[in-house]
Amino acid sequence: MLSAEHLEKYADVLLWAMQASRREPLRNAAVVLLRYDLAGLPLAEAVYARLLDLRCCPVQRMNATSAMERDFYVRSAVKQLTARTPGEKELCENLDGSIHILAPDSLTHLAATDPERIGMATTARKYLRDILDERERRGVYGWTLCLYPTPELARSAGSSPADYAEQVVRACRLDAGDPVQEWKQAHRDIQEIRRWLSGLKPRELHVQSASMDLRLVPGEQRRWLGLTGHNIPSFEVYLSPDWRGTEGVYFADFPSYRSGNLVEKTRLEFRKGRVVRAEAETGGQFLAEQISMDEGASRVGEFSLTDRRFSGIGRFMAMTLYDENFGGEYGNCHLALGSSYAATFDGDPAEFTPEVRERLGFNASALHWDLVNTEPKTVTARLAGGHDQVIYENGEFAL
What we know:
- The protein is α+β, with helices and mostly antiparallel strands.
- The protein has two domains: 4-177, CATH 3.40.1830.10; 182-397, no CATH class.
- It is built from 13 helices and 18 strands.
- Helix 1 (4-20) packs across helix 2 (41-53).
- It is globular and about 55 Å long.
C-alpha cells in the first residue's frame, strides 16, 4: 500500500513524534513498545530498524487479528475477560515509549458481540493505562499512534485502496522531501494557536451549528494542547474541560467505528455534565452500553477543534485518528466521552493528585471515545470580563 520510500519517511516521522511527546530525549537503551496489526508489518519493520539505530530496546507485540478478538469476547468466561496477564504491569512500569500502528482487517467484526463484555474487558485493563498516564505525567514516557492503509479501511471509507493510501501519504506529509521538517513547522504554528487560546482563559465555550447548541466550561488550571506528538497525523487543538459544566446538545455527523461496531448520527443531550439522552441512527444499543460502562463514561473528557488550513484530510477515513483531524470545508470539532487528559492540567504534574483531579472536574473513565462534527459552526468564548469573543468560525481559528 505504501512504497519503500514512504515507509522510511513514515518511520522517521513516527520516531520524531514519539520523542516530541516526551519532556526529555530518550535515554540509551530506552525500552519502547512497538505494537502493530498484521497488515502493518511493513511499517513495523521500518520502525523497528529505526529504534535499533537510536540504541533503543524495542519490544514488539502484534495485536490480535479480528478473528482472535471476536473469539476472545465470544468464548471467554468472565475470569478470562478480566484476567491480568503476567508481565504486562511490569512492562508498563518500565516503558520509556510506545508506537502503535493501526492496520485493521475488519471494522465491524464485533457488531454481534455483547457490548457489556467489551466494556468489562476494557475496564479490567484500565490499570495499565493508569500506569502509563502516571509515567507520562512524570515525563518519563512518550507515545504515538498511526495508521497503515488497508483494503478494509478503504472499503469502509468508500474509497479505492490507492486513493485511500494517497490520502494517508498527503496527511502525514510523506510526499515532502523532508517530512520531519514539515511536522516541526506545523508544530510551531499550532503551538502559537494553543498559546493564544490558553491566554484567553475563557469561562465558557458556546458551540453552535445547525444541529448543536452546547456549552462547555474549560475549568480552572487548564491549558490547550495541540500536536503533542501523540498522533500522526494531528492538527487538532484540544483541552479537557470541567465535565460538570457541560449543558446542551452535541451531534456527531461523522460515523464512528469503535470496538468492531458502527455508530452513525449520534445525538447527545447533556444536563449538569452528564448525558441524559443518547440517540444514534445506527448502533444505538452499543452507544448506550458504552455510556454506561462506568460512572465517568457519560461525561466529557475532551473538546477539540481542527483548523482546515492545517489539515490535509478532506474525506471520511473510517478511522477516528484521521476523522478527528478532518479539515474539509469547515474543519471539525470533536467531543470525547470518558477520560480526561491529565496533560491539559496547567500546573506542576506532581501536584495532580486524584483529589486535585476530582476538585477541578477532570473526568475519569475506562472509556475515551471521540465523536466528530464537521458542520459549519461558530465557537464563542465568554471571557473573564464578561464579553464574548468568537474563537473559531468557518473552519478556522480567529487568531
